[in-house]
């Protein structure tokens, strides 16, 4: 039970990072990135490949960040003229392309077999229970640091400028804001955060395969950010933990129902997730912790 | 008499319809220039091209002696030209204060790295801008709604925010597209007084307006546009007596 709890909290932390990433790009600059799972995969595979070739974990994490930034910049450049739903479609496609590359480029990613034996730092030395605990502390620390960092961005003049782009990018240009630079930088940071989440996931699971990066993850993260409150980093973090708690909770609820076989139980869980999203959007469209207007500093 | 803005031979078509057919006009530094003309004369299109929303098909624009033909909106703001919109536009979820301070230029804190590290220069600039924004709000009597989202303001207050945020960019020239449209007479007076005060502070203003009494009181010179080009220019009375202008507004006598 303890290891299950540690596992769930660690996954919660990784979802929280993804939610922070989505909140920055969607809640910040207003670009709908349905390709989150793709960036998650890029980071996971980058570190798996680099550390598999013998590099230390820290280099693996660094290359995950770098790979995320590069793919993020490519996507932003490629979609500059797209807005709203069109951007969403392209990014959704991108995530599938990344997943299909992972599935077919066997020389690099071992295809559907996945990559196993990814280094779990210090596990052989301290044992798996201590590793799980230590990794939870590590992931949670990273979540807190990222949250502080993104909150700082949110409250800065940079945060104000990207929110202006989110609300009306044409008008932001008439306010003298460099819209293109703001979009590129924000997308790059957001992609780097999602890739970092992927890298941490990789070293935690020791095994990744294309199946781990289905578009469903993106939907869960959208649920997390919507439930938590779009445009506020704290909301994204809380929403992510709430979604993981809910997903795990439905596991028990579905088992409790009499006469439901495991396959039906799995389908029921998906339905409950959908129902939860509808309920949140209906009852509290602004989320648990909605975006706040920062009051003027009176002198 | 120095020219702040001069436009030569500006053309622009949309879907094969030539909306600007060769505009030549000058705006003198320190003036309040009125831009009038019947609907469809190309006034708003001229503003849109001048402010960088659309590139011109042909022609040249000089702003304070610098060639800014085809420059992007953000570059034009830096060069000292800011515009407002006919239908007051804003960022729905930002407050009045955020609108004002957003228009402050040269804020290094808008750089990603400076925002992360929280540079001292950015903090100082933020304090300067924040004081300035509060002063502008007081001047326009918006200080009691300073933290309200823009969507919670009345139509007239939105117009005042448009003027206030333009001011925050320290422009040499403000292009105002119908600053009094849809505003009650009292507020119209108030806006007129603000414009005169700004002009006295040295800001050149060019405005499109349909309220002729107001144009007569505020503007000298008045430029009349018709069919995509400048028809005549002069003092209000001189322009109003012009035969071509009357025909442009009322139609030709047969």
TrEMBL record, chain A:
Record-linked PANTHER family: HIGH-AFFINITY BRANCHED-CHAIN AMINO ACID TRANSPORT PROTEIN BRAE, HIGH-AFFINITY BRANCHED-CHAIN AMINO ACID TRANSPORT SYSTEM PERMEASE
Pfam family, one: BPD_transp_2
Main location: membrane
Source organism of the structure: Rhizobium lemnae
Name this polypeptide is given: Branched-chain amino acid ABC transporter permease
Membrane topology, from the record: Multi-pass membrane protein
TM spans (from-to): 6-25, 32-51, 57-77, 84-102, 130-150, 184-201, 213-230
Coiled coil (UniProt feature): none
Domain of life of the organism encoding this protein: Bacteria
Keyword annotations from UniProtKB, A to Z: Cell membrane, Membrane, Transmembrane, Transmembrane helix
Compartments (UniProt record): Cell membrane
TrEMBL record, chain B:
Keyword Membrane: no
Pfam families listed in its UniProt record: ABC_tran (PF00005), BCA_ABC_TP_C (PF12399)
Domain ABC transporter: from-to ranges: 5-252
Keyword Transport among UniProt keywords: yes
Domain of life: Bacteria
Any coiled-coil regions, as ranges: none
Matches recorded under PROSITE patterns: ABC_TRANSPORTER_1 (PS00211), ABC_TRANSPORTER_2 (PS50893)
Keyword list, A-Z: ATP-binding, Nucleotide-binding, Transport
GO molecular function list: ATP binding
Family statement: Belongs to the ABC transporter superfamily.
Protein name per the record: ABC transporter ATP-binding protein
